[in-house]
Amino acid sequence: MDLAYSHEEEQFRASVGAWIVEHLPHDIASKVRAGQRLHKDDFQRWARLLGQRGWLGYGWPRAFGGPGWNAIQKHLFEEQCALAGAPRIVPFGPTMVAPIIMSHGTPEQQQRFLPGIASGEVWWSQGYSEPGAGSDLASLRTRAVRQGDRYVVNGQKTWTTMAQWGDWMFCLVRTGTEGKPQAGISFLLIDMKSPGLTIRPIKLLDGEHDVNDVFFDNVEVPVENLIGEENKGWTYAKQLLSHERTTISDINRSKAELERLRQLVRDAGLTGDTRLCDDIARLEVDIKALDMMVLRVLSLEKSGRNPLDIAALLKIKGSEITQRYTELMMAVAGPYALPWIEDAMEAGWPGEFPGPAAAHSTLAMGFFKNRKTTIYGGSNEVQRNIVAQTVLNAGGRNGL
Ligand SMILES: Cc1cc2nc3c(=O)[nH]c(=O)nc-3n(C[C@H](O)[C@H](O)[C@H](O)COP(=O)(O)OP(=O)(O)OC[C@H]3O[C@@H](n4cnc5c(N)ncnc54)[C@H](O)[C@@H]3O)c2cc1C
Fold this sequence. Notes:
Low-confidence stretches: none
Strand order of the largest sheet: 1-4-5-8
Mean pLDDT: 90
Bound molecules: flavin-adenine dinucleotide
Helix content: 40-55%
CATH class of the largest domain: Mainly Alpha
């Protein structure tokens, strides 16, 4: 297995990287680098620029207007975005729902929904989790009852990320109660401006409003917004989760944050602190190991072999690494890391501390913010169950 990039791949990396550096607005990159709050406009400005270049749907095939990149090219694009300080591409539209619309939507649905996703104009949210239906997602109870040419939806979704900015939501709803719970679930696209749909903010540990409760009170959804067949939504939902096989590890973001951590160490004059440097070295080894694991998966994909589905393993390692670098940043800042200063999250905050300490004012927020990485996308405990069932039982069939 050859894990080195080919000459063509290195060229691709350089040209994509150059475009990103040239077009990424400086104010957005500096917010990302400083760990400051990003607003809807920040995400969408970058999304629109990528959309104009045809790269927002960077995983899309050419047939649907995407660049048709292979797995390695997608990985290199993500790497260059992270290194340049680009905001995350909000995945709900381009990475999550778009492939489902491509594979299971009608031509009319494809024409109606894909252009708005590709251009970055339309913001999507993911309506899967409910109170009492997170890890055990199949027990979801939000009900959609067909009445003529529409479904009437009642129930509640929760933890819906950035729903306050959402134009549309892809939603799992219960349309049947016969047989296994998985058999009665459908996949609906819901206009979030529909009458009867209300959004209530949930404030998290970091004080930020990133997630929401979403309530449906007799929300009417035209039947043409059903994706695929009624009661087959579970199959599509599972497919959607597997699209994140390697990106879920967030390895490229971790590589960029490792550099930020090193800079903080240098600025704080702590390069002689051997204990701290040992911890950073251990983190770097783990980041390298995860990077190699991601490359092995990509290499298998490129050579046409079907890699073992190790999304769960990548998620566990990646989310733990994310939490570790935020912990180490706190350690570097020492007492300056303690204050939790909401105003410091905004660009232009004058700062209360002199010199390098000003750069520490967002660290507490970053630390709190990243406690959630071991929960969302399926909790790490549940991922460990999946690893036990799939990876260990499969006995390293693919050498992973
Ligand atoms: C910040 C954030 C953003 C999110 N964004 C979205 C979103 O946009 N859309 C969306 O649909 N959902 C979203 N989620 C929901 C997320 O997917 C769920 O929180 C997650 O799947 C866990 O479900 P739960 O919260 O109901 O916890 P539960 O399922 O109630 O689990 C509670 C605890 O029990 C453990 N546990 C449960 N079952 C098992 C088991 N079988 N074995 C061992 N341990 C177990 C869990 O690990 C956890 O520690 C988000 C969550 C967070 C925190």
